[in-house]
Design a protein that fits this description.
The protein has 14 helices and eleven strands. The chain is 45% helix and 15% strand. The chain has helices at 9-14, 18-35, 43-54, 69-79, 95-99, 133-136, 140-145, 180-183, 197-206, 222-233, 239-255, 262-278, 286-297, 311-321, and strands at residues 59-63, 80-81, 84-88, 100-105, 110-115, 122-126, 147-150, 153-156, 162-168, 188-190, 220-221. By secondary structure, the protein is of the alpha/beta class.
Length: 324
Amino acid sequence: MSDNLAADSDDADAGPDPEAVRAAGDLARRVTENVERVIVGHHQVVEHLLTAILARGHVLLEDVPGVGKTMLARSVARSVDCTFKRVQFTPDLLPTDVTGVNVFDQKTREFEFQPGPIFGNVVLGDEINRAPPKTQSALLEAMEEGQVTVDGETRAVPAPFTVIATQNTVERDRTYELPAAELDRFMKKLHLGYPEADDESQMLDRIVGDHPIEGLEAVATTDELRTARDAVAGIRVQEDVRSYITRLARATRKRAELGVSPRGSIALLRAAQARAALDGRDYVIPDDVQREATVVLAHRIRPGAGAGRTARELIEAALDDVEV
């Protein structure tokens, strides 16, 4: 089963382990505190990123250059003792530069697979929209199914597996638009924005001398993250909460040219499970859904000509109108 879209059914039937759920929430808090040694003034964004990772999701960070998107991704990766790979997306990047390629070995007279950077626990796709859609599509199978197919042979990526991609929003004439199918595979789309004056002053103080990321050490292991993700996947979601998520998704489909897909509904449920774990609960409440809805759903919606509202405004309207 996919590491991103399916939890182990036996674990789900057994019900959540309260101790494991508390441990998952504690892991998220430890990593958040560690990341905030580097990233100043973006507590909610860091939390959203951590809940996405716990929920087996991928994250798109979109903003202007220089606000800390790449630094945030690197800080999260350093905070967990796992394999970190980075892909600098450029116009001449090929799909095999991401997935890997079979190379002929003159000595053995056989082809040997050289894995690409997609084979990591945390993969940073830096400025993903600088590469053409053909190269961007190299990520799709791994993000959806946790595997990569090269020359007809399928190989699993490491578990846990998370893609954190950054997107340049300024140089539109030098970038490519992400296809809807690719956007839909990101659980969340987050924005950092410019820091407040006090936060920026604190940031400048921290970088006097060595950059704080150089001294950042891991506060969680890969096994702990894997266990935390399993615990989150087993958090209870009652029928009335599942129905609420469905009604929210259907409301967007009625109001937009392109509404929330079933994959988006699944992503919202999983994000709500992770939010519950962060609050120390082994069950989801409507508040968890509401806190995650905008960052999980807005990037999946196309309002259409004449809608008169942005995607974010459509989600906020649905939250106001759909009965809990």
